[in-house]
């Protein structure tokens, strides 16, 4: 990515609040022990923990691992969701990576954060309730949630990038853009959280 301000791994407070809302909601909806979002750092070819709910939430944010490894790596590279009922029998599961997080799940669901520009990252739900992981319909709902969250995240990041470019250009509008930043950040946060709330209502009403 040429614009560092639009790099999804460089998360500002607005985007971080959105991502935390996503993992908190996903964990609650699927009755899971934990939920996390990894964002893809294309330059480093790594996935980065950016939001965690449940197990590991106190220390995992910022941890990185190779983008080509594990279930999250597979989902990021293929753009396809995955549900695994027994991770001990899955060849893509990287147990050593799980052990490094101090929590080794027995099962998980994962879906890509997809946008027109490609995969932004991965949403994972660890050890969801049995009824959640037993249905492909539930995986479809997780994938829908991830797509909507990615759209909201991309909108927040693009707003920030546009303002940063204007300020860096030193144009006559730069000072006005800087003054408007807080308002646009607020608007971005509100728009993103509205998406999360709408999807949460859809899932809880099913």
Please, could you describe this protein's structure?
The protein is an alpha+beta fold and 206 residues long. α1 (13-29) runs parallel beside α6 (174-204). β5 and β6 (118-126) form a beta hairpin. Strands 3-2-1-6-5-4 form a six-stranded antiparallel beta sheet, sandwiched between helices. It is 49% helix and 19% strand. The radius of gyration is 17 Å and the shape is globular. It has one domain (4-204): Beta-Lactamase. This is GAF domain-containing protein. Pfam families: GAF. It comes from Kitasatospora atroaurantiaca. Residues 14-163 form the GAF domain. InterPro entries: GAF, GAF-like_dom_sf.
Characterize the biggest β-sheet.
6 strands, antiparallel
Number of domains: 1
Secondary-structure element sequence?
A: HEEEHEHEEHHH
Give the total of beta strands.
6
Looking at CATH, which topology would you report? Beta-Lactamase
Helix content: 40-55%
Distance between the termini: 38 Å
Please state the average pLDDT score: 79
- Tell me the Rg in angstroms: 17 Å
- Low-confidence runs of at least 5 consecutive residues: 1-6
Shape label: globular
Instruction: Output the number of helix runs.
Output: 6
Organism: Kitasatospora atroaurantiaca
Protein name: GAF domain-containing protein
Pfam families: GAF
